[in-house]
Amino acid sequence: MALALKIIIAGIAAYLLICLLIWAFQRKLMYVPQKHVVTPYMNEAPENMKPVSYKSRDGLELKAFFAPPEDKMPVIIYFHGNTGIVSDAAHKMIPMAKAGFGVLMPEYRGYDDNPGSPSERGLISDALGARDLAQRLCPNAPVIYYGMSLGTGVANALAEQIPPDALIQEAGFTSFIDAAREFYPFLPLSLMMKDTYKSEERIRSLKAPLLVLHGERDKTVPVEQAGRIFDAAGSKDKTIKIYPEGRHVDLFDFGASNDALDWLLQRFPKGE
To answer: According to the model, what pLDDT value does residue 34 have?
Structure first.
């Protein structure tokens, strides 16, 4: 009996230690900032894209990349995932830029040699600063938010405060808590997580057109969460496209950028 009690106590202590360690280091697991490195896609970007800088709402000077739109065309603000750097995704925006859309790709705090450390509050401040920059650069242009993975949480938070003219979600989640449960189902995450990115709640207020893109074989964020985001959105004009062979980061390989462009051109025809 005494041995069994000791085993139980040891098990509880080990569990509490795991909870404490994950609570303490959760942002190290959630955000994987990468410094500036050469990647296969680094030199693949819209021809007219140039480096710019912007200020977060809390005053950090941050990097970004900008390709101006053609006359009367919208600007797309692209928010990337939790790993890599934003320039890695520039190749995905080539079809949009060639079609005349402007593209603004802000880099988060703590990524690519930017100052600061990432957090939900911090990244929302960054997104608001990027939105301010888009307004200054193109004051009369419609503005579209495009989020990928973590970036969908950032885009939804921004959309709740400053509604876009359209919203695109690639490999998005209902909340960071739901996403983390896929990896840590044994933890009381709703009590532990500092950054929750409650997209399913935030997107209920969305009125702009919505496009949801997701891979059927996504093991990071199950496709079921894409359906919940789609159902929760308040938009009357909303579309969901599921790629049967798609995983979390490879939807580009299955034509997602061209699909997104076709969807955008139906709502923002060139020259109108």
So the answer is: 77
Cα-Cα-Cα-Cα dihedral sign, residues 49, 74, 53, 80: negative
Q: Which residue in the block uniquely carries the two structure tokens 């490879």?
A: 250
The verdict on domain 31-267 having CATH code 3.40.50.1820 is: yes
- Asked if the model's pLDDT at residue 229 lies above 50, the reply is yes
Amino acid code (one letter) for 225: Q
**260: which 2 tokens?**
């997104």
**239 near 69, Cβ under 8 Å?**
no
pLDDT of 227 over the 70 cut: yes
Q: Are 105 and 93 in contact (CB under 8 A)?
A: yes
Q: 0.90 cut: is pTM over it?
A: yes
Q: Virtual CA dihedral for 78, 79, 81, 83, nearest 10 degrees?
A: 90
Q: Where are the domains of the chain?
A: 31-267
pLDDT tens-digit profile of 187-201?
888 888 999 999 999
pLDDT in tens, 43-89: 677 888 999 999 999 999 999 999 999 988 999 999 999 998 898 89
Output phi, psi for 123, to 5 deg.
-70, -30
